[in-house]
Amino acid sequence: QVVADMREKRYAQEGIGSSYLFRVDHDTIIDATKCGNLARFINHCCTPNCYAKVITIEVQKKIVIYSKQAIGVNEEITYDYKFPIEDTKIPCLCRTESCRGTLN
């Protein structure tokens, strides 16, 4: 967590507007900010059509995105980021009927 926090601050100082950090478990956070596949651009939604799950293949943990329903051509893929609750709120822009209003 300490390294992730330092990277977030450094990215802000470098003018990088968004960081792509994914918590795998209590001790591991994957940083796809500067290097990663297109899944890092999957947006949050309060009523998502997918969910993220961490699985173990042999001894390596992987993040897998599973569909919750049929997804049409050109339909956006979304999942709930499940950010921890914090005092400083991040506005949610999903605009669904059941939007919580914030990501955290």
UniProtKB/TrEMBL annotation:
Source species, domain of life: Eukaryota
Domain Post-SET: from-to ranges: 88-104
Matching Pfam families: SET
Residues in coiled coil: none
A GO-annotated cellular component: Set1C/COMPASS complex
Subcellular location: Nucleus
GO molecular function, one term: histone H3K4 methyltransferase activity
Transmembrane segments: none
One GO-annotated biological process of the protein: methylation
Matching InterPro entries: Post-SET_dom (IPR003616), Set1-like (IPR044570), SET_dom (IPR001214), SET_dom_sf (IPR046341)
Name of the protein: SET1A methyltransferase
Gene name per UniProt: Setd1a
